[in-house]
Amino acid sequence: MVYGRRRIGKTYLIKEFFKHRFAFYATGVTDEKTAGQLRAFYTSLKEYGDTDKTVPKDWYEAFGRLKSLLCSPSVRREPVNNKIVVFLDELPWMDTARSDFKSALDFFWNTWGSSCEDLLLIACGSATSWIIDNLLEGKKGFHNRVTRRIRLLPFCLKECKELLEHNGISLPESQIIDCYMAFGGIPFYLNMIDPRLSVVQNIEELFFKEYGDLHDEYHILFRSLYKNPEKHMAILKELSSRKCGMTRTELASVKEIGGGEGLTKSLRELCECGFIRKYRNYAKEKNDAIYQLIDPFVAFHHNFGSEKKEGSSWMKYVNTPSYNAWRGNAFEMVALNHVHEIKQALGVSGVESEEYAWKSEKNGARIDLLIDRSDGVVNLCEMKYSNDPYEITAEEYEKLQRRLVTFQQETAAKKSMHITLVTVNGLKRNKYAGIAMNTITGEDLFG
After folding, report:
1. How far apart are CA 367 and CA 25, in angstroms?
2. DSSP secondary structure letters along 250-261
3. What is the helix (H) or strand (E) element at residue 394, kind and residue range?
4. Neighbour tally for 110: CB within 10 Å
5. Residue 286, pLDDT score
6. Would you give the DSSP letter of residue 281?
7. Which of its termini does the chain have fewer beta carbons within 10 Å around, N or C?
8. Averaged over 150-157, what is the pLDDT?
9. How far is Cα 271 from Cα 273, in angstroms, rounded to an integer?
């Protein structure tokens, strides 16, 4: 089972790995009813050798004809291990309302497919809720039928750089970080970048132009992932306005979200796709979880989505206070998505750790990333975005001191505390710089 958000590269990965050498390949069709799905499946059956000239009347007949095709002596086999590889892409779309798809697939697999040692059935889909409910956590026909699961997540900065270079685009690492803060690590979006244009111009063309390829992508994205995405989108809208995140109780109090099993399910699905993270306050119990938006593409939409719909230009936001505020918040998301690289730069990649956040109960002071290490150290990470080496002023120095003291007093932490500065262009040395025990640069985030 291969799953993940739309545009992450699931289909591309599978096709490239097997060099398109499938015994059978079919894909679900978005927004089609059962008849349309069966016609598409029939087209694939014909392409791979089925001689029946009629569209299957239902899914039982469709999978019966697939079985006959796979039992043929002329069936195409994967040349390396001689496997019969069947790839069903966008599987959730095939399961339309009131169809017999799930029962037919279950019958096909349990009565024949599972006993064929040389058969490899690959199911793939973007509709994460269907994947989780029916394949990964289902208690009915597909229970315990998934032998391997691959969850694809966005690229890290290093992978983004490699993709851009593969496309003939050479950018300074600081500008690649800028790309990541708008596009996220989504390969499909990064492939749209025009090497003839600056990063600012690319954002203008792709997001803000009425016919830009990503102008309406946000709404298309969630309609493809979830059957009823309204609750998911309402959650993300609320989290976009609360940088530190919200508890489940706080989210449930929002009228458009509500509580119950529906909220639990939506939060789990958003976590699975990497849109949000679930963490706990360092000083709280495990059941006091906080949910925080960590997807740069979603954050960019909620910062500037309404403006772009009004036809405004991205150019006019560059270097404005709202632009600078967005960059600061977006860079924090970059750091949250690169904890492994931060630990690597600290020289503790092999040390077990847990990541938390913390907010003072007294004065609202907060630390967005705490790396609690098993070697007796807690890294208190401060993320700062600036075009030049970051300079700690007297005011900032006092703020960091108060934050450290407050954290130690309220948490009674026994470990050694290391203030760790995460910046794009490093730290400017002055008499206040010594408060930062470690400095992680943008270059370090590339691993």
Report:
1. 49
2. HHHTSTTT--HH
3. helix 394-411
4. 13
5. 60
6. B
7. C
8. 93
9. 5
User: What pTM was computed for the model?
Assistant: 0.90
Helix, strand, coil share of the chain (percent; to 5) = 45, 15, 40
Handedness of CA 215, 220, 225, 227 (dihedral sign): positive
The rounded distance, in Å, linking the Cα atoms of 385 and 313 is: 23
Q: Is the pLDDT of residue 405 over 60?
A: yes
CATH for the stretch 2-151: 3.40.50
Distance CA 436, CA 424 (A): 15
Residue 378 near residue 418, CB atoms below 8 Å? yes
Domain boundaries of the chain, sorted by first residue: 2-151, 157-215+299-327, 219-294, 345-446
Q: Are 221 and 6 in contact (CB under 8 A)?
A: yes
Question: By the 8 A CB rule, do 86 and 70 touch?
Answer: yes
Q: Put the strands of the sheet holding 276-280 in their side by side order.
A: 246-247, 289-293, 276-280
Distance CA 367, CA 382 (A): 7
| Domain over 219-294 is classified CATH 1.10.10.60 | no
Neighbours of 322 (CB within 10 A): 11
* Cα pseudo-dihedral 223, 228, 231, 236, rounded to 10: -20
Which secondary structure element, helix H or strand E, spans residue 24, and what is its range? strand 24-27
Distance CA 32, CA 163 (A): 34
Token pair of 73 as six digits:
């002596």
The more confidently predicted of residues 22 and 147 is 22
Residue 18 has pLDDT above 90, yes or no: yes
Phi, psi of 252 (to 5 degrees): -65, -25
Quote the CA–CA distance of 357 and 401 in Å, as a whole number: 18
Is the CATH code 3.40.1350.10 the one for domain 345-446? yes
Matching residue, tokens 């009813």: 33
Q: H-helix or E-strand containing 104? A: helix 101-111
Residue 311: what pLDDT?
56
CA distance 179 to 160: 9
Phi (first) and psi of residue 120, to 5 degrees: -120, 110
